[in-house]
Amino acid sequence: MVHAVEKVRQRLLRASQALDRSGIPYAVVGGNAVAAWVSTVDEGAVRNTRDVDVMVDRKDFATVRSALESAGFVYRHLAGIDLFLDSEEASPRDAVHLVFANELVREGEPAPYPSLVSRQRAEEFSVLGLEALVQIKVTAFRDKDKTHLRDLIEVGLVDDSWTKKLPSPLADRLQSIIDTPEG
Question: What is the chain's alpha carbon radius of gyration, rounded to the nearest angstrom?
């Protein structure tokens, strides 16, 4: 278990260092971003994740690909997702997944992902600002996104005042999580 967690951390650091060296604007999103935010309040409440999600601007894709490949990652486009594997034999679950700022990730989502404007430095990598991260989580709204929202609520980073910061139906989705903290 410790080895699996460390592999994700090393993948995150290797990818972010490659992007930093190339001067490419990016932000870690997904479970690692939630963990970074939760750790600012309660390290014991941090939840592990198995992959690394990174947001970039689509216009930077060629530079992103070059930077990550130079760090040893192997590019694949699978099921509509741009990802970077640790090796040719690696599982797509154990990868760096790209999402694009200002774009819909899945058809039918109520809002595009936000821009990279609110990114900030957290530890050794850039992370999306909390408000933009919450927007992503209520937009995607899968089970793991709901769990991540509950983690942010549990440590006090998000509360019912946040519903005023989001458009409907995103505000309604967040309110439903606040109203049912146990699921």
Answer: 16
The per-residue DSSP string of 87-123 comes to: STT--TTSEEEEEETTS-SSTT-SS----STT-EEET
Check residue 73 and give left, alpha or beta (phi > 0: left; psi -120 to 50: alpha). Answer: beta
Q: The tokens 């992902």 sit on which residue? A: 113
pLDDT in tens, the chain (183 residues): 888 889 999 999 999 999 999 999 999 999 999 999 999 999 999 999 888 999 999 999 999 999 999 999 999 999 889 999 999 999 998 899 999 999 987 888 888 899 999 999 987 999 999 999 999 999 999 999 999 999 999 999 999 999 999 988 999 999 999 999 887
Residues contacting 167, CB < 8 A, separation 6+ = 111
Q: Determine if the peptide bond prior to 169 is cis (ω within 30°).
A: yes
Q: Report the alpha-carbon angle 102-122-9, nearest 5.
A: 95
Which domains, ranges and CATH numbers included, belong to the chain? 2-179 (3.30.460.40)
C-alpha to C-alpha distances, 116 to 10, 58, 101, nearest whole angstrom:
23, 11, 6
